[in-house]
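Lab manual, section 2.4: Encoding a predicted structure.

Procedure: take the sequence of the chain (166 residues), apply the prediction step described in section 2.3, and record the output as structure tokens. A sample record is shown.
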Amino acid sequence: MLKEEIAVIREIGEKARETRKNVIFGMIEEDELVKGVYYNSAFFIDKEGAVDSYRKISLPNFGPFNEKRCFKEGKEVKIFNVDDSRVGVLICYDLFFPELSRALLGCDILIYLSASPYTSKPQFEKMLYARAIETSSYVLYANLAGREEDMLFWGGSRAIDPFGKI
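Recorded output:
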């Protein structure tokens, strides 16, 4: 990991311990064994300060998205224990691969961190509800909002119950 990554994670870990809060956030992660290999990752830091990460498996390689040029695919889904709940975490385009959500069956909550542009809003909205219903899990969706260069992101963060209701 880069020194900057370690410093950010350490600082967030200290705050998690101080406030007794669990924290999840997205960040680029450098491979610990191979310099120059990066992952699009979701970090989970529990209220004790323990750190783990999920590396995005499904990298889009079409239109404005060329993630395979920058990142390596992760290899496995992760389940995090949060108090008495099992939490699965996936990132953005992972949502479109039901086998990844099925690998998280039995989780109480599925969290999707995302940077979905406005042009894919209808597809993401449909898939979010489908994943909640098919897995019988709560779905928490956090999406980027606003503009980055020439791309507009639609926001739309929400919580959906296992019956598909917000």
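Check your result against the sample. The chain has a mean pLDDT of 95.
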